[in-house]
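Please, structure for the following, as tokens.
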Amino acid sequence: MFTGIITAVGAITTLQPRGGDVRLHITTGQLDLRDVQLGDSIAVSGVCLTAIERSSDNFWADVSRETLERTTLGAAKPGTPVNLEKALTPTTRLGGHLVSGHVDGIGMVTEWRPDGRSWRLRIQAPDALARYIAEKGSICVDGVSLTVNQVDGAAFELNIVPHTLAETTLADCKTGRRVNLEVDLIARYLERLLLGDRAAQPGSGGLTAALLREHGFWK
């Protein structure tokens, strides 16, 4: 588990094809790896990866075909900057929100404009994720925990403060950039719980208006 509070920006330096998937070498910048053991998890732009080799300022991780297909790591190349966060511990400050590092989909930046000292970021999410995105709720974008300011269908807006711009790869955002999205895990589990016994039935589907009415959430 992670918090979505980025602690360093690193870079992908090497991609080694390995029988249909890829092994990545990542330099970690200012991320302190002294307490990282082999097998530990590190979030790389929102993707939970397992360190299989490491030294003081870099590590290697295997990336499955599933992850390559569902995240922006599938289009990564040497030199691609990445947001980094080590897995949380029981004593970690939970400054963001609970993040699993399991990306739900890829969004597209459609607007990027200044707003005072901050920047406004508008992202078009996949339609299937729209029901999990709520105004003033939390969402993880390339591993960064952010608050949703506005929602319009499957599009949503965020405010990126100067500190986040300085400490993450979001400063490099521009229209057309693809970003990893992870919705609030509580929303995902709530949807499944509302299905009750129907969750075990094939083709049970997801959250619907009828289901919300049945449980008193919609009149």
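The chain has a mean pLDDT of 91. Residues 185-195 form the longest helix (11 residues).
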